[in-house]
Task: inverse folding
């Protein structure tokens, strides 16, 4: 089966210190993996700020071009020579951004965003058909056009607005959603509603999701497979539960050790063992090696 997305040796460099300095930083370094080889899945990218996870997502969306390597969607290179090719790709691959309040113009009614998406991607012209497409997408996320029509972003909660953003992304009937920290700006009480919605998209609608996060708890709950990134490199990759229950790479173990448990919540001082202190400074060099449980771990040095 042809993967939905293939990432082949992708590297992204950004110049630093000016164009003439000759120096650069590798935001993503030699990333290789595939998504959707066995059907719809939730594929999670985990890493702290600066790990390269958002840059990788932007390359999948075609918003950044790799410095080297190749990205394939359904076996074809992600290159857009004209507006028509770009729109055809975006109909199948849709983004959901971190902050819903930044994704919507505060002076524009939210239903206008849905309407423009329906007209642009579905080619609808008559208003009843547009309204039906909008309402169908909103129903999938637990909302309706009747309750949203004419309302501005500030009149909705963060959870409602993020669900509207997901509904807008669903209008073209995409095969893949790129969800960049979709619950980080939502109240804790509403996070599980969004996370459960992503599971519903996979299970009931056949939509694969690239879920980008630093939240190990939600990653454990919804992920089929994951990668952990450190300074642009994948240091561990494979089945989500196997990795999060027993991480092998020192950086992966550090991330898990940094999660505050309920037993630790009352402690005045939290300590990390010396092993994890050394892991924080470890270089993400080496090569990915396969393990019997299906994971790959970066070991040794190049």
Result:
């Amino acid at each position: 089966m042809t993967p939905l997305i293939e990432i082949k040796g992708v590297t992204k460099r950004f110049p630093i210190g000016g164009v003439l300095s000759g120096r650069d930083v590798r935001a993503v370094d030699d990333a290789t993996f595939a998504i959707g080889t066995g059907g719809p899945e939730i594929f999670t990218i985990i890493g702290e700020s600066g790990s390269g996870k958002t840059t990788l997502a932007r390359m999948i969306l075609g918003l950044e071009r790799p410095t080297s390597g190749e990205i394939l969607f359904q076996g074809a290179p992600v290159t857009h020579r004209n507006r028509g090719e770009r729109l055809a790709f975006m109909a199948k691959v849709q983004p959901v951004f971190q902050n819903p309040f930044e994704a919507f113009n505060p002076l524009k009614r939210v239903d206008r965003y849905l309407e423009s998406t329906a007209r642009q991607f579905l080619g609808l012209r008559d208003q009843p058909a547009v309204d039906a497409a909008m309402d169908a997408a909103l129903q999938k996320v637990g909302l309706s056009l009747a309750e949203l029509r004419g309302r501005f972003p500030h009149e909705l909660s963060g959870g409602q607005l993020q669900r509207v953003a997901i509904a807008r992304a669903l209008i073209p009937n995409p095969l893949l959603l790129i969800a960049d920290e979709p619950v980080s700006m939502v109240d804790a009480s509403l996070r599980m509603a969004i996370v459960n919605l992503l599971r519903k998209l996979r299970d009931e609608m056949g939509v694969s999701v690239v879920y980008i996060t630093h939240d190990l708890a939600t990653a454990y709950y919804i992920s089929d497979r994951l990668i952990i990134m450190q300074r642009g490199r994948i240091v561990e990759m494979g089945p989500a539960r196997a990795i999060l229950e027993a991480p092998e790479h020192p950086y992966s173990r550090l991330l898990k050790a940094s999660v505050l448990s309920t037993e630790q919540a009352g402690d005045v001082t939290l300590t990390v063992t010396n092993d994890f202190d050394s892991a924080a400074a470890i270089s993400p060099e080496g090569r990915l090696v396969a393990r019997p449980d299906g994971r790959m771990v970066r070991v040794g040095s190049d």
